Amino acid sequence: MNKSQIRKKILKARKQNNLKNLNISFEKISKILKKTKTIGKTIGGYYPYNYEIDTIEILKIFEKKKYNISLPKIKKNSQMNFFYWSTKDPLIINDYGIPEPISKKVVYPNILLVPLVAFDKHLNRIGYGGGFYDRYINKIKKNKKILTIGLAFSFQKVKKVPINSNDIKLDFIITN
Asked: What is the pTM of this model?
C-alpha cells in the first residue's frame, strides 16, 4: 500500500474506534525522559484533532511539574513553529480547524510529542501528508538536540511505512 492508502485505512479505523488515551500516560513519557537524560524542560505538544491521542492531560501534568508547554502554529508558507501555551490559555482555530495558541512567543522544544496516522517498527511515521512535522524536526535538529516521541494507538502500526528522503524517523513511539 502507498502512503495515501495507508492513511485512508488508518484514519477510518481511528474514527470508528473513537478511543481515548488507553494508558498513554505521563509515566510512559517520563520513563523515556529519564532513560535518555533529556536536558531541558520545554515540551512541544499538539492539540488533539481528528481522533488523535489526546495529549491535554499529559501536558497539564508536565505544566504542574514546571515544564514550559508549547503548541504548533501553521504559518501561511506551510511552515510550522511552536509557541508558548499554558493549559489555562485560550486557543484560536486555524484554517485547518485545529486549535492553536494565541501567544506570539516562539519556543524551541527539547521534547516534541508528535501526532501520527500510522507507523512501523522502524519508527517511521505517516502524518496527514503536509510534511509539517518532518520539515520542523529537520529544521530544529540543525540547531539543537530534540527528542521526538510519537503517540499512537497500537492498531495504527503497519508492517512497513513507505518512506522518502524528506521523512524523518522518530526517536520513540508510545502506544496503548
From this structure: 0.93
